[in-house]
Amino acid sequence: DDAYRELLSGDPERIVRTYNALDLSWIGEWPPIEVRALAMDLDGDKKLERVLIIDNLWNTAVVVLRQEGDEWWRVGVMLCGAPRGNCPKTFVELRQTVWYGTNDLIFHTGGSIGPGLSENRLQIYRVFAGRLYPVLDVIENAADWSGQESSKFHFRDPESSANPATVVAHRTKEFRGRRTSACIPYVWNVQKFAFLPVPATRQLCAPPN
Predict the structure, then answer these.
(1) Whole-model pTM over 0.85
(2) What residues pair up with 133 in beta bridges, in sequence order?
(3) Residue (of 148, 166, 149) closest to 157 by Cα position
(4) Choosing a second label site near 114 at 20 to 30 A (CA), which of 25, 39, 88, 201?
(5) CA quadruple 37, 42, 43, 46: dihedral positive or negative?
């Protein structure tokens, strides 16, 4: 909360000091052009974690902080190190993907790799025992000289006890003039602490209402 106020102060010294306190010295000394601070449950305990989203024109940083006693600890950080407009339009979103009431972080990463080449990925991270864990990493969009592919994702309601926590990818590929489509469900696996692909079924791949 103090970091949020310091970043909005407009004072270059206070801003740089806050970058350093958050271990963000590598994003430079440019003042932020947008700062968002979110307080929400990320790990199922009674205390609300903090998510700081900082955009300073050349970098977008997402910092996750957790309180233990009177101290705040940095759980993790994600960076899109590209000039404004070159990061995915939505770099980060928060959604309840596994447990009702507990939020996870969804990152949309990647971008242009070179002339005619691009790849964007959808990555889901969960907080557990004070650490940030990747639980799903799949291609969202990709293109090269031979074709392209894209996926639309459907997140099944974790509040429903009738269905397991599931992320369904409806994927379309165009390869040398041929177009194909497929449904790929990813179901939450408690033992592996990850979303794992499972065979497609009519129930899992049914379009959302």
Answers:
(1) yes
(2) 126
(3) 166
(4) 25
(5) positive
